[in-house]
Every structure is written in structure tokens, then in C-alpha cells.
């Protein structure tokens, strides 16, 4: 069975065609700057063939037509007919409190995703555009599934997801913590259990997805009980360009004194803060660590803030779960940044955690980085959200 996984943004479309018999990627690629001058499409196949072009991509439908052609024709052809693709799985950022699991696409589901756009104005409308364009190009007989980024967090207890505001107002505006990266956190705990050959029942795991966007999740018995992102992905850790946790009074104070509109404030907190804002030059962790090592004080502050905040979240989630069995690092920083893992894990000695420095000296590899006598296991597990989406899509299509 082959599943096509789609991740649509307002001006981008990423795809992966996955063979579910062996869970290997057959082809993958992306379309950028859809609807903007300078459109670009590129991709590669499992056996190393590559393509790149700069066609006009005025809309998502055109982009999907190019993806279809890339799969079916030319030097990078991987299938003879669209019949070989059993189903299509779409990533959707915001399922609100409506969806606690993946569902088959129906007109009703599309209407619900549209209604939830207020909570994810940059993402949900783009996902709908993607689903509609996909239906136009691949036909409405091909089953499609939506996998929600926050579904894994739907098990959080009310006292963890609620804000301390009047509850009628919270209800009226659906104003609460939803979290994000749920597909990744779910993949990580399930992969951990699979590797260890254990059930998640009775386990306490902290998953750290650290990338341009970063979130940490407390998972007890395989279920999320708390996560660091909030009503949007702005909350929690300092990120590439997002502020993370910030006193709401600091926000209203800046807004008043700078004379910003709500939109300008949101743009500021999401795009101009984080590592970029503190260092003053880059949102990229590699650049910040390099600059820190050359003596840049602001880069040192930015990286120290991230290390400190990761440790604080881990500590608070140990308290929230009354213990921890394993800590997992993933995402661009979690999988690749040796100094980040070292700075975090070496200060967790109070938990009986011992870092295996030799094992930690690696990038992008599935590996245990704690010593055998460490009281808590620490792992690096490269995340695979696309595979998690494909697995859910397969499960739903087979259950039909
Ligand atoms: P996104 O959230 O956009 O998917 P990624 O998960 O790809 O982002 O993570 C991007 C981050 O990973 C960047 O801050 C980048 O600097 C960081 N990163 C990637 N490789 C390394 C590395 N070798 N050392 C430190 N940071 C790295």
C-alpha cells in the first residue's frame, strides 16, 4: 500500500510518497512560493534521482498537478498510475477541542476545520486550500485523511489546559491550551516503546521536540498530560523567532509604549523574538552556538536561555508526573545539537541521570545517550511526522 502525505502551508506544499509495506519513502519534494513570484519545485526519489524547476505556481491546484506529474512522468517517475496510491493523508495544525484523533475527510470535516481557522489563521485556511486542490487533481474517489497536530494533546486534564480566566469567556472563545507537534510527540513515545519492546502503560516519558518551533510534552501511560505550547505555538520555550513564555503584562506594556496594534504585537512575538530577537542576528541554533563560541554575549544569552528553559520544563514535568522513566530529544536541535543535549542533561544529576558523553557525540541517529547505570534513560530519536501521518491514514482506510 502506498500513501501520499501532504503538508500544505499558505504558500508551500510538501509531500512524501511512502510504501507502507516497508515504511520506506519512495519520493518526496516540495513546492515553494505558491501564489508568489519566484515559485520553485524540487524533489527526489528513494534511489537518488532528483528534479528541480521554477514553473509558475499561481495556486495549490497547479502545484498539485506538478507533484502528480513528478510522480507519474519524467526522470523521477515512481508510479505507473494514480491507482497505486491508496490514500492521501494531510497534516492539519488545529483541530481545536473538536478532534481528538485523525478522521476521514468529508464536507462536514472541511467545514469544521474552516470554523477552527480563528485559532490557526495562518494554517487552517491553507490546509483547506490544499485538500480542495488535492481533490481536484487526484479525484474525489481517492480517500483522504486529516491528521491533527494537537490531537495527541487532547488527553490533557482540564486543570492543565485551562487558563485562569473566567470560564464563560474561555468557553465562548475556545480560549485554552491546545499544544502542537502532537504527531511528533506521539511518534516518539510509540517508537520508544517499540524499540524497548514494552507497553506504554505505566511509563512516564518527557519528549523534547526542539527545532525552529520547540515544545516539550509530559506523557504518562502513553497519554499526554501536559505540553509547553498553548492556544497557539507561541507559548513555552524560547524558539527560533518566537518569544515562548512571556508575562502577559510585558506584552500589554510593550503594546502601549510602542503603539502597536494586536496584529503588530502578534507579528513581533512570533517573528522577531526568540533566538533571533535575543541574539540580534539569527534564529538558527547553529549560528548562535558558533557565535557564542567566538565570544558573542547576546548569542551566549540566547543559548543559555534555551538550555535553562528546557531544564525547567523537564523539572516541572517530572513534578507533574511524580517521576520520569525516559527523556527523548528530537527535532533539528534535539537530534543534532550535541552542546544543547550536553548542557541540558549534565545538569539533571539530581534525577540520577548520567550522560554518556561518547554516545552523545552524534547527530541524527537513534541512540541512548545516558549511561547504563543512569536512573533515567535519555534518548535521541529522529522524529518522523510524515510516517506517523501515513500510519494513521493507513489505519483509517483499512478500517473502512
Ligand atoms: P522546523 O521546526 O522548522 O521543522 P527543524 O526541526 O529542522 O525546524 O530545526 C531547525 C533547527 O535545528 C535550527 O535552529 C537549526 O540550527 C538546528 N540545527 C540543525 N542542525 C544543527 C546542528 N548540527 N547543531 C545545532 N543546531 C542544529
Structure description:
- It is a single chain.
- The protein has helices spanning 60-72, 107-115, 124-138, 158-161, 167-172, 182-196, 248-258, 262-271, 274-279, 285-293, 297-321, 331-336, 338-345, 357-360, 385-399, and strands at residues 2-8, 13-19, 24-32, 40-45, 50-53, 85-92, 103-104, 144-148, 204-210, 214-220, 223-227, 326-330, 367-368, 377-380.
- The chain is globular, with a radius of gyration of 21 Å.
- It folds into 2 domains: 2-148, 2-Layer Sandwich (Nucleotidyltransferase, domain 5), CATH 3.30.420.40; 197-385, ATPase, nucleotide binding domain (Nucleotidyltransferase, domain 5, 2-Layer Sandwich).
- The two termini are 15 Å apart.
- Strands 5-4-3-2-1-6-8-7 form an 8-stranded mixed beta sheet, sandwiched between helices. A 6-stranded mixed beta sheet has the order 11-10-9-12-14-13, with helices on both faces.
- α1 (60-72) crosses α3, α10 (285-293) packs across α11 (297-321) and α11 crosses α13 (338-345).
- With 400 residues, the protein is α/β, with parallel strands linked by helices.
- β3 and β4 (40-45) form a beta hairpin.
- Bound molecules: adenosine-5'-diphosphate.
- Adenosine-5'-diphosphate (ADP) binds next to α10 and α12.
Amino acid at each position: 500500500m502506498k500513501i501520499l502525505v501532504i503538508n500544505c502551508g499558505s504558500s508551500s506544499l510538501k509531500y512524501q510518497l511512502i510504501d507502507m509495506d516497508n515504511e520506506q519513502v519512495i519520493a518526496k519534494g516540495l513546492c515553494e512560493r505558491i501564489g508568489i513570484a519566484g515559485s520553485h519545485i524540487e524533489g527526489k526519489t528513494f534511489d537518488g534521482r532528483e528534479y528541480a524547476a521554477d514553473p509558475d505556481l499561481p495556486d495549490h491546484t497547479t502545484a498539485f498537478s506538478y507533484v502528480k506529474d513528478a510522480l507519474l512522468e519524467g526522470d523521477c517517475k515512481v508510479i505507473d498510475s494514480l491507482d497505486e496510491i491508496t490514500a492521501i493523508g494531510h497534516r492539519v495544525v488545529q483541530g481545536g477541542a473538536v478532534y481528538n484523533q485523525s478522521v476521514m475527510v468529508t464536507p462536514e470535516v472541511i467545514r469544521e476545520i474552516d470554523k477552527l481557522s480563528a485559532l490557526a489563521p495562518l494554517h487552517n485556511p491553507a490546509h483547506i486550500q490544499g485538500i480542495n486542490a488535492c481533490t481536484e487533481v487526484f479525484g474525489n474517489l481517492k480517500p483522504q485523511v486529516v491528521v491533527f497536530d494537537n490531537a495527541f494533546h487532547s488527553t490533557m486534564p482540564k486543570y492543565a489546559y485551562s487558563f485562569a480566566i473566567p470560564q464563560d469567556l474561555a468557553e465562548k472563545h475556545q480560549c485554552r491550551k491546545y499544544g502542537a507537534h502532537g504527531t511528533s510527540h506521539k511518534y516518539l513515545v510509540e517508537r520508544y516503546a517499540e524499540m524497548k519492546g514494552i507497553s506504554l502503560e505505566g511509563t512516564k516519558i518527557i519528549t523534547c521536540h526542539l527545532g525552529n518551533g520547540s515544545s516539550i510534552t509530559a506523557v504518562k501511560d502513553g497519554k499526554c498530560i501536559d505540553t509547553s505550547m498553548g492556544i497557539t505555538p507561541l507559548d513555552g520555550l524560547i524558539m527560533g523567532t518566537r518569544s515562548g513564555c512571556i508575562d502577559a503584562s510585558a506584552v500589554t506594556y510593550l503594546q502601549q509604549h510602542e503603539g502597536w496594534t494586536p496584529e503588530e504585537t502578534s507579528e513581533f512575538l512570533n517573528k522577531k523574538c526568540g533566538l533571533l530577537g535575543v541574539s540580534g542576528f539569527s534564529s538558527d541554533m547553529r549560528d548562535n552556538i558558533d557565535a557564542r563560541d567566538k565570544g558573542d554575549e547576546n548569542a551566549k544569552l540566547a543559548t543559555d536561555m534555551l538550555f535553562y528553559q528546557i531544564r525547567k520544563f523537564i523539572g516541572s514535568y517530572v513534578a507533574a508526573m511524580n517521576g520520569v522513566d525516559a527523556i527523548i530529544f528530537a527535532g533539528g536541535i534535539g537530534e543534532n545539537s550535541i552542546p544543547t543535549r550536553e548542557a541540558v542533561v549534565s545538569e539533571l544529576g539530581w534525577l540520577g541521570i548520567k550522560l554518556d558523553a561518547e554516545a552523545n557525540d552524534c547527530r541524527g541517529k537513534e541512540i541512548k545517550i545516558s549511561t547504563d547505570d543512569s536512573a533515567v534513560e535519555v534518548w535521541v530519536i529522529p522524529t518522523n511526522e510524515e510516517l506517523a501521518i501515513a500510519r494513521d491514514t493507513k489505519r483509517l482506510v483499512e478500517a473502512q
